[in-house]
Specification:
By secondary structure, this protein is α+β, with helices and mostly antiparallel strands. The protein contains twelve helices and twelve strands. The chain folds into four domains: 91 residues, no CATH class; 74 residues, GMP Synthetase, Chain A, domain 3 (2-Layer Sandwich); 64 residues, no CATH class; 63 residues, no CATH class. Pfam families: PSP1.
């Protein structure tokens, strides 16, 4: 879903509204909620829900009570209550769906610290808000330099000003705990505003910055993914992926979130397979599992001491051998089962254009050998060539 400003231009390039997710239609933000109850009227006597969802920079959302009974709609710029002064944000949801979202995010309506909406933002509020938004990028460059000067192991990833400019929130990432008391003093002297430091994870930083993944698409965390679940290397092992950190790590430096997408399907499929640490006892020797193919239902085994020779059998055959081993019986060898799966790997291609040759349109090159032979004969027998000329 996008507005007309995001359509393609004359030169084939996307236009873009240059509002970076703060357009009036609110169609460029990944956290947009479609209000499917907007065209439905409430029953008689029912009052509309007096809470409103307001979004700020980088997808930050809060819920405010409309105590002034303002007529608000999606896209309105409002001045909201803050801890000190007021903040400016955009209304993203109104009505009964706000109640659903608050219940989903466990926000209580009877909270003692209820934040309120003061008014619709005036032009003066919007101008002040825009001016401070323009100062954030040059401030970020200076803030990073200050952190480097005092040799702090941290990175300032983003800065967010409050709507009235009375407070600036510095978002940073760090591997370990950082003592930034001296840094806050430097920021307060330089920027002359109240400073708040907030640490974010590396995944959250990647979602803020965005980018293109190894799959060729935009990062999931910056387009639609809202919750960041932990990803472990066991997810790659269950899916039989090579444990190469360069391929498994995303732009955030952590394991890719997409490793969890198909993990449940693989775990369900592996329930029908014997465990990978099983051993098959045969008269020829003890076989150990080396590899499993979930899609084909095959398992590769190698005898102890002959690790380079693998024998492939089906999962049903492996279960059959295990049942025999439980009854203290042994099969002769795995080769008996593996011979049934040997297939002819020769590929035969069919002629999809019928009986015609693929070179039927190529011009036939003249036979150079026949021409050279004629010339040599003429040189050897000049008399014959004269008779033929007469």
């Amino acid at each position: 879903m996008s507005c007309n400003s995001c359509s393609t231009g004359k030169d084939g390039q996307p236009k873009g509204c240059k509002n970076n997710g703060t357009c009036g239609t609110d169609s460029c933000n990944k956290l947009t909620v479609f209000d499917w109850l907007s065209n439905m009227s409430l029953p008689n006597g029912e009052k509309p829900f007096d809470w409103v969802e307001v979004r700020f920079k980088n997808g930050r959302k809060h819920y405010y009570k409309n105590t002034e009974n303002l007529t608000l709609s999606i896209g309105d710029i409002v001045a909201t209550q803050a801890q000190f002064g007021h903040d400016v944000g955009m209304v993203t949801l109104t009505g009964e769906l706000v109640r659903v979202q608050m219940k989903r995010k466990k926000v209580s309506e009877n909270d003692e610290e209820i934040l309120k909406i003061y008014r619709k933002a005036t032009q003066k509020d919007i101008d002040i808000w825009s001016d401070y938004r323009d100062k954030e990028e040059p401030m970020k460059v200076k803030a990073r330099q200050f952190a480097i000067d005092i040799k702090l192991q941290m990175k300032i990833s983003d800065i967010e000003f409050q709507g009235d400019g009375s407070k600036a929130t510095f978002y940073y990432t760090a591997e370990e705990r950082v003592d930034f008391r001296e840094l806050i003093k430097m920021y307060a002297r330089e920027f002359k505003t109240r400073i708040e430091m907030k640490q974010v994870g590396f995944r959250q930083e990647a979602s803020r910055l965005g980018g293109i993944g190894s799959c060729g698409r935009e990062l999931c965390c910056s387009t639609w993914l809202t919750d960041f679940r932990s990803v472990s290397t066991s997810a790659a092992r269950y899916q039989q992926l090579s444990l190469n950190p360069q391929k498994l790590a995303g732009q955030c430096g952590k394991l890719k979130c997409c490793l969890n997408y198909e993990l449940d399907t693989y775990l369900d499929a592996l329930k029908d397979f014997p465990k990978s640490d099983i051993k098959l006892y045969t008269e020829k020797g003890t076989a150990v599992c080396q590899k499993t193919d979930i899609f084909k239902g095959h398992m590769w085994f190698a005898y102890e001491g002959e690790w380079s020779n693998w024998h492939v059998i089906t999962k049903d055959q492996a279960i059959e051998i295990l049942e025999l081993n439980k009854n203290k019986q042994k099969v002769a060898s795995l080769e008996e089962y593996a011979s049934e799966l040997i297939e002819n790997t020769k590929t035969e291609f069919e002629n999809v254009v019928g009986q015609d040759s693929l070179t039927r349109f190529d011009s036939k090159a003249p036979n150079r050998k026949s021409k050279n032979n004629r010339r040599n004969k003429r040189k050897r027998n000049p008399q014959n060539s004269k008779k033929n000329a007469k």
